[in-house]
Amino acid sequence: MAEFLTLSQAIETVRDGDTVAMEGFTHLIPYAAGHEVIRQGRKQLTLVRMTPDLIYDQLIGMGCAEKLVFSWGGNPGVGSLHRLREAVEKGWPNRLEVEEHSHAAMANAYEAGAANLPFAVLRGYKGVDLPKVNPTIRSVTCPYTGEVLATVPAIRPDVSIIHAQRADRAGNVLLEGIVGVQKEAVLAARRSVVTVEEVVDDLGPRSPNAIVLPSWTVTAISVVPGGAYPSYAHGYYKRANSFYQAWDPIARDRDTFLAWMREHVLERGPEDFASRLAKVA
Amino acid sequence: MAEFLTLSQAIETVRDGDTVAMEGFTHLIPYAAGHEVIRQGRKQLTLVRMTPDLIYDQLIGMGCAEKLVFSWGGNPGVGSLHRLREAVEKGWPNRLEVEEHSHAAMANAYEAGAANLPFAVLRGYKGVDLPKVNPTIRSVTCPYTGEVLATVPAIRPDVSIIHAQRADRAGNVLLEGIVGVQKEAVLAARRSVVTVEEVVDDLGPRSPNAIVLPSWTVTAISVVPGGAYPSYAHGYYKRANSFYQAWDPIARDRDTFLAWMREHVLERGPEDFASRLAKVA
Amino acid sequence: MTDQTPSTTYSATEIMTVTAARALSAEDVCFVGIGAPSAACNLARLTHAPGVTLIYESGTIDTKPQVLPLSIGDGELCETALTTVSVPEMFRYWLQGGRITVGFLGGAQIDRYANLNTTVVGDYDKPKVRLPGGGGAPEIATNCGEIFITMAMSPRAFVDKLPFITSFGHGTGAGSREALGVKTKGPTRVFTDLCVLEPHPDTKELQVVTLHPGVTRERVQEQCGWPVKFADDCSETPAPTAEELKILRDLHERTKLAHQGEA
Amino acid sequence: MTDQTPSTTYSATEIMTVTAARALSAEDVCFVGIGAPSAACNLARLTHAPGVTLIYESGTIDTKPQVLPLSIGDGELCETALTTVSVPEMFRYWLQGGRITVGFLGGAQIDRYANLNTTVVGDYDKPKVRLPGGGGAPEIATNCGEIFITMAMSPRAFVDKLPFITSFGHGTGAGSREALGVKTKGPTRVFTDLCVLEPHPDTKELQVVTLHPGVTRERVQEQCGWPVKFADDCSETPAPTAEELKILRDLHERTKLAHQGEA
């Protein structure tokens, strides 16, 4: 059964050297949890995420990661991730190993992880250069048609971290809207941390097919209102597009980046997210 | 885009010799459509269904099928399907070829069909006799771990037939409740027929993640209120359990079966289902 | 106050159901087969294990039916569930995903190593009796943490040799599961109308561990198609309590009334 | 009454977007990339192709945004969609499922066979510029019925040789797709700020099929990193109509206002 913990307690489930997936496809990105990982000074993480964006730029720039597994790394609608680029292009603050996939391959790899399969099969990677630089991309032959199909290993994180709309008091978690690969990421992981906007007595009237993670599939839940800011939570608050634009100049320079992180992350706590939100709503 | 047709027109999309999947996992079983297939006298069908129940008993007993692909064939909560048994055990009214799977394998095979893959991989069929009698059950070796996993060919029906709660005027179809493999069956098929309880101007307020088959994934829609009777439609009417019990003695004997089919199927039409329903509600 | 007095007036089916129910704990996540397993699982939920998570293969997760379903996909299961997923998701993410602690199965036939047959009696291609088939059982048997089986004893059901292995128990004895690379425990208990059997820790052959009150070893042997063994410390099954019987009978009564209404 | 008069006051980006939009029909099911493709697809929906089905890789199916999204997963896309599926389902059932008629891509670099690079400039292991990566593009490029590409011309974008092939176009020319067993058409049109290019029917090398009004062949060649070819029947791109420009500018204006509100 999921335990309700403070964010600081919950993030202690992340250990140095772990493979950690923080997912959220534009929507419901677990920013508050990512900041707590930075504050706790985790190192040598293998960070997994289809769309590493600002929170991964911050983790990489603060030296938490030694490897990145990803399929699209950018500041959506704005441009490059400067900390990610500097790590890859110049090895600052440390060399960052890269395992690069396509979205289809990563989505399938999470799906295979959730299904407890060792690999995923897809019609993909045809005619492209990624398999030349990523030796984990292999193939199998269909036992019926003889067709050769691409394979990728299943993703099985040590810890998956997501943000969701709400949990009930038993720890069942409801997700809705653009749900990305979050359910698969949690089900594929050994441990999981879910931050939520609120805890409710009852998840209430909902679709019989609502996307719910039962309490016993989740390790820890932390209540962090606004915890997805500057991304958004469907039904709660909108995306702070201006923050994504503001990030570009902050992240271009090592010193402005470090100063910003000190002021807004290292010297702050998760309770700040609710007030950031107040400015948005 | 889906065409709105009478049931009789819609079922003309089924041709002699086709592979046809009529799905519905206890819930939303397309009885009215199955009766129309019988009335139109289709022959030599390969019938696919995880849980062939009364409607497949009727199709088999009326000689529509030359092959059955299935994983559990019974009268749920009651016992045997006597027409299925007589076809398999005694070849009446014709010999029935059987391709038998487990539920997990068939669910995966539909899923692979919907995903346009030629085969599905599963951790299954270990230590059991089905692979000895079903040569379509094979294996692949994981390119990463060396583990040998079971495979089954994808299911790609010529026609899939399902029943759903409702469609909007554009032909988008909403399913909810126990949704089984119906979405996969439609997406895996070349053509599809959906019978619905009603057509509405707008699908209305619903979960952002509601299970909807867009109009352009469906070939034909027919409005048949009560079309799932004696199974049920979540939000519309309940299962007629007594019918399942009553079926047992009807189906035990060839003559009572044929008399019942003549009176209740051959000499009737889809409009009857609404009145059957009236007795239920 | 609840009545924990052992009762003396119960049927063989009732003690089978009650004994099976007692084996479940509130922490279990249980994949429920229809029929006897369903009654046992829901009795557990209504008595000592209110937190038990019941999952039916129709996709209903953490369901709390007020009446027993007649089929694996009754509306009651969906209406009282935490959520309902598609059948492919159920078999991929939930069963194969390794999230189920106990799979609860019945069957037409069982052998001494708790392998089950629900496929055919006689030759597969020319069967004497064509049974419904495996359904979810083949993968339930290997993907759940452990397997509980519940079925009434008879020489036609407890057989020396199965004509067909639909779901894998302990194969031909100790080491069979390991040889196939299966890491789950397989059948750990068999609840019948006469006794409870468990695999011998070394040989994996089923042996009687408790006899229901009033049942003799001879009676068990009469209903079993192989020379059945008894554990050294074979004891008596605790009788159902008055409270357990009341709750079970109320459940069946509610079920009967509810389903009568569904003409 | 709508104003179909050709306009003379439009930007290069505007004619690129309008020309791209015109290529979509109401019957298309279109997988939409962010940026220029998104503007073109929504302009098509708001003008001549109201029935066009737009799908974004975030899982939103048949979405009808009133303002352009800044990211592939803006709330607006979900709120105006027929339904929203998970990302694994999007890539498995919808893209790989073969249900998309047109994939609309942009890119950082393109070569004469319409292969695209969005991964790196320079060596992969020691890149001069690390670009965002492929995202959905590698599988969009082979699983959609055909591919439309839209990107502004420049010698750094239209290059003689790609340092990295992120998504497959026509490979090294005629027969390349067939050799890999790919049955879809691949890139059929490239919409730029100066002209429209299409693969030559025989060689599959891109050639200019229409020049935007006022654009010379020399200007196109200056912005292209290989000796670009022109179709025998190369003609002038019809200018955007006043109505198309009004709807496009209104869309951008609404978008600007909406996103301003989101501090």
From TrEMBL, chains A, B:
<keyword id="KW-0808">Transferase</keyword>
<dbReference type="GO" id="GO:0008410">
    <property type="term" value="F:CoA-transferase activity"/>
</dbReference>
<dbReference type="Pfam" id="PF01144">
    <property type="entry name" value="CoA_trans"/>
</dbReference>
<protein>
    <submittedName>
        <fullName>Glutaconate CoA-transferase subunit A</fullName>
    </submittedName>
</protein>
<dbReference type="InterPro" id="IPR037171">
    <property type="entry name" value="NagB/RpiA_transferase-like"/>
</dbReference>
<dbReference type="InterPro" id="IPR004165">
    <property type="entry name" value="CoA_trans_fam_I"/>
</dbReference>
TrEMBL record, chains C, D:
<dbReference type="InterPro" id="IPR004165">
    <property type="entry name" value="CoA_trans_fam_I"/>
</dbReference>
<dbReference type="InterPro" id="IPR037171">
    <property type="entry name" value="NagB/RpiA_transferase-like"/>
</dbReference>
<dbReference type="Pfam" id="PF01144">
    <property type="entry name" value="CoA_trans"/>
</dbReference>
<protein>
    <submittedName>
        <fullName>Glutaconate CoA-transferase subunit B</fullName>
    </submittedName>
</protein>
<keyword id="KW-0808">Transferase</keyword>
<dbReference type="GO" id="GO:0008410">
    <property type="term" value="F:CoA-transferase activity"/>
</dbReference>
